[in-house]
């Protein structure tokens, strides 16, 4: 947890390992084309610690502690706040980008927090209403769906989906051996040693990122 | 005919600068919708013709069927162009909400002119969704857009901002060309709207 001991000089107030975890989650989220699992416990802890540090800073400013020390604490706090805000923001922007997909896909829904699910639902509703009023209601009957091109289409062919084939840069934390191609095709594997950097399609490393064995850069 | 208006609409959108809105081209928009209607009428008349000839509409593959298919394909292409036009503009509207401000009146008037009433409606709805999320999570998400370097920055005020703005615990007067040393998070919003500039020298 946060440790604030003014006698032992400058220490990072927000517990070091949590900041590392937040940074890792933030980097992965930024680099991945798809939305990752919501780190609920981490976010809650980070919020608590940020509040604690803010109170400490207020205390210090009132008690007249050296302003340089206070501003160092403030900068550290700013950095952590930025990480947290950017993490949440990147997720929201991904939801906005793939609005209808997040709303319809079961798998994607599992990775969202409750508030994010609500946000996704509202976003999708707003955009659908916007489409209906500007375009769809003016078109002939069979062509009024937001999700399908016309009633004849079999799938929801107007929904943009995240590109899981994008190439990403990643580093492995352990020794990992992965299947390069889909099941049934030639079973070429790639083996990653700990610390190796790879430039590879996101789809292949997706499972490993979720379990924490590989990090995106 | 056959998708030409849709193509022109998309070209009109992409001829603007990336990320900037042009005024909504209602004329071209309505013409594209009319093209869709024409296509639809032709489909219906071709299908009626096939029915009158006693042919099975679903399975019979004669010239009329292919004619109807061509009209159908043009129609959905126009639909895609129309949706793309609306969708891309909506994307820019959302981007404005994040970067510039969540209140419609915060947007500079040149931008407000280019939005239709429906787009302004969408802007408001989307801002409400964002605000509601921020409220539930308890964190403001539209500040801090760039990684922090210094907590305080020097700014120069470019436009007249209303007097008596409260920054932190001080009430300041932002008159034109005055320079201030303020917290970065407070100044961000004004910088995004072009009312202040950061002095880096």
Give an overview in words.
The complex is a heterodimer of chains A (217) and B (201). Chain A is mainly α and 217 residues long. Chain A has 3 domains: 6-97, Methane Monooxygenase Hydroxylase, Chain G, domain 1 (Up-down Bundle); 99-161, no CATH class; 167-216, Ribosomal Protein L9, domain 1 (3-Layer(aba) Sandwich), CATH 3.40.5. Helices cover 52% and strands 10% of the residues of chain A. Chain A is built from 7 helices and 5 strands, in the order H-H-H-H-H-H-E-E-E-E-H-E. Chain A has helices at residues 16-31, 40-63, 67-97, 99-104, 106-110, 114-134, 202-211, and strands spanning 167-172, 176-179, 189-192, 197-201, 214-216. In chain A, the strands form 2 sheets. A 3-stranded antiparallel beta sheet of chain A has the order 4-1-5. A two-stranded antiparallel ribbon of chain A has the order 2-3. The radius of gyration of chain A is 23 Å and the shape is flat. The model of chain A is unreliable at 1-13 (pLDDT under 50). Chain B has 6 helices and 5 strands. Chain B has helices at 4-14, 26-52, 63-99, 109-114, 117-137, 184-192; strands at 152-157, 165-167, 170-172, 179-183, 196-198. In chain B, strands 4-1-5 form a 3-stranded antiparallel beta sheet, covered by helices on one side. Helices cover 55% and strands 10% of the residues of chain B. Chain B is mostly helical. Chain B is elongated and about 85 Å long. Chain B folds into 2 domains: 4-137, Methane Monooxygenase Hydroxylase, Chain G, domain 1 (Up-down Bundle); 152-198. Classes of the chains: A mainly alpha (217), B mainly alpha (201). The interface between A and B is large, with 38 and 39 residues. Chain A: Keywords: DNA replication, Nucleus. Chain A: InterPro entries: GINS_A, GINS_bundle-like_dom_sf, GINS_Sld5, SLD5_C, Sld5_GINS_A. Chain A: It is found in: Nucleus. Chain A: Its main location: nucleus. Chain A: Belongs to the GINS4/SLD5 family.
């Amino acid at each position: 947890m946060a440790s604030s001991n003014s006698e032992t000089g400058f220490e990072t107030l927000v517990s070091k390992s949590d900041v590392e975890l937040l940074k890792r989650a933030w980097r992965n989220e930024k680099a991945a084309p798809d939305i990752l699992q919501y780190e609920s416990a981490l976010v809650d802890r980070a919020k608590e610690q940020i509040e604690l540090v803010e109170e400490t800073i207020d205390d210090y400013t009132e008690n007249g502690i050296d302003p340089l020390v206070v501003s160092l604490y403030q900068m550290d706090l700013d950095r952590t706040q930025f990480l947290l805000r950017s993490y949440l923001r990147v997720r929201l922007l991904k939801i906005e980008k793939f609005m209808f997909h997040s709303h319809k896909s079961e798998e994607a829904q599992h990775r969202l927090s409750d508030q994010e699910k609500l946000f996704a639902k509202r976003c999708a509703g707003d955009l659908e209403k916007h489409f209906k009023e500007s375009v769809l209601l003016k078109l002939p009957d069979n062509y009024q769906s937001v999700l399908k091109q016309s009633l004849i289409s079999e799938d929801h062919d107007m929904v943009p989906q995240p590109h899981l084939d994008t190439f990403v840069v990643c580093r492995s934390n352990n020794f990992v051996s992965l299947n390069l191609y889909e099941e049934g095709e030639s079973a070429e594997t790639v083996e990653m040693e700990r610390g190796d950097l790879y430039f590879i399609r996101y789809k292949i490393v997706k499972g490993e990122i979720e379990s924490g064995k590989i990090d995106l850069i | 005919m056959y998708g030409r208006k849709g193509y022109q609409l998309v070209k009109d959108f992409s001829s603007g600068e990336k990320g900037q809105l042009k005024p909504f081209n209602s004329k071209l928009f309505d013409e594209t919708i009319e093209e869709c209607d024409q296509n639809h009428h032709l489909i219906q008349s071709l299908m009626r013709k096939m029915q009158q000839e006693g042919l099975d509409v679903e399975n019979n593959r004669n010239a009329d069927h292919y004619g109807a298919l061509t009209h159908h394909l043009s129609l959905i292409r126009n639909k895609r162009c129309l949706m793309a036009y609306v969708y891309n503009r909506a994307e820019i509207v959302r981007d404005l909400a994040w970067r510039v401000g969540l209140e419609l009146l915060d947007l500079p008037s040149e931008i407000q002119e280019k939005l239709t009433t429906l787009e302004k409606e969408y802007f408001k709805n989307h801002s409400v969704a964002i605000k509601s999320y921020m409220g539930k999570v308890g964190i403001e998400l539209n500040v801090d857009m760039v990684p922090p370097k210094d907590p305080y920055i020097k700014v120069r005020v470019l436009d007249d901002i209303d007097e008596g703005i409260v920054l932190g615990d001080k009430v300041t007067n932002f008159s034109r060309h005055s320079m201030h040393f303020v917290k970065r998070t407070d100044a961000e919003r004004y910088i995004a709207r072009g009312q202040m500039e950061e002095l880096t020298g």
